[in-house]
Amino acid sequence: MIKKILLLKSIFLILSCKTNFKTIDFDEKNLPKAPDYSSHNSWAILPNNYPESLNLSKEISLKKADVFYIYPTLLTDKKSVDWNANIWDDEVREEVLQKAVKYQASAWSKAGNLYIPFYRQAHYRIFFDSFKNSGGKAWETAFQDLKNAFEYYLKNFNKGRPIIIASHSQGSMHAKELIKLFFDDKPLKEYLVAAYLVGTRVSPDEFKTIKPMTKKDEFGGFVSWNSYKMGKLPKNYLSWFLGGVTSNPITWDKTEKSLKKEHKGLLGKDLNIYPKSLTVKVKDGILWTSVPDIPGKFFLKFLKNYHFADINLFWKDIQENSILRLSKWEKKYLNE
After folding, report:
1. I need a labelling partner for 248 at 20 to 30 A (CA). Which of 90, 127, 198, 265 fits?
2. Is 164:111 a contact under the CB 8 Å cutoff?
3. What is the pLDDT of residue 87?
């Protein structure tokens, strides 16, 4: 547990440290092989094909809704000169499953059928100014994969079911663009149950017709938050967070504070749910979070940035909320 916490701390303090990444110029010739979304090998998760080791709903029949989930940045090794992840590498694939899917995407597995594409995500260093030139090309490669995946999903898998978009960090940044392309002011908007755009700044007016949701049973809009230790602010608060929508993922309304008893539950590394373990306070662009009252709490006190746990912290809250929003969507559209 101690080693895990120290590892996470080192990763998420990078933004405040000197950037010593190894790098080379971006060259399309060096890109990993592109995914082929007509093949199941290009998908981390498809319905009814969930690996046994993951914390996912085991229902056999297809659910009435779909969840299209986009995972966060996992390519962070400073020694790697790769601009984009090699989705054919066994370690890369396993990391997606054992980190992003197990501890994040699993929160939505009861609400809908999970569709999770592998994509050649961009390396973490693209978020630093000194890597912008090549980084932009790497970013476009990642987004093009996701665009292709979503188009394939719509044509071959969706079958007219309502859709939940779920994402974190880099995934949410890509998800914003997918929403603009496919949902915003488009016919598909009527099929959007909710977009959970977690771990990045999303402006209140990010979209033309898709708005922030401020009621727990609202649908057709989005929610977003960035978790940080109570009373603390990141050094890049003004440039990265200020002005972003900050939803309350416990009450799901305009309440700026929560009570510990209202917290439905955190998903721990041991896959146990810890209810009533934290409180939150909404600040412009930041969701202040108390130190979770869970095993290993002492070591969590040394962390300020809870970005790595944006979803884990509110796992049960997200699970119940996504089911509620779907039920309200169904009540309107399926009973018309």
Report:
1. 127
2. yes
3. 97
Closest CA to 196 of 111, 92, 283, 79: 111
Structure tokens at 6: 């120290």
Are residues 220 and 186 in contact, defined by beta-carbon separation less than 8 angstroms? Answer: no
DSSP assignment, residue 291? P
Residue given tokens 């938050």 in the structure block: 225
User: What pLDDT, in 10s, does the model give residues 187-218?
Assistant: 999 999 999 999 999 999 999 999 999 999 99
Distance (Å, rounded) from C-alpha 111 to C-alpha 34?
30
Taking a C-beta distance cutoff of 8 angstroms, is the pair 69, 116 a contact?
yes
Instruction: Give which of 205, 201, 165 is closest to 182, Cα–Cα.
Output: 165
* Per-residue tokens: 215: 């009621």
Is the Cβ–Cβ distance between 280 and 290 less than 8 Å?
yes
| 2-245+317-333 topology per CATH | Rossmann fold (3.40.50)
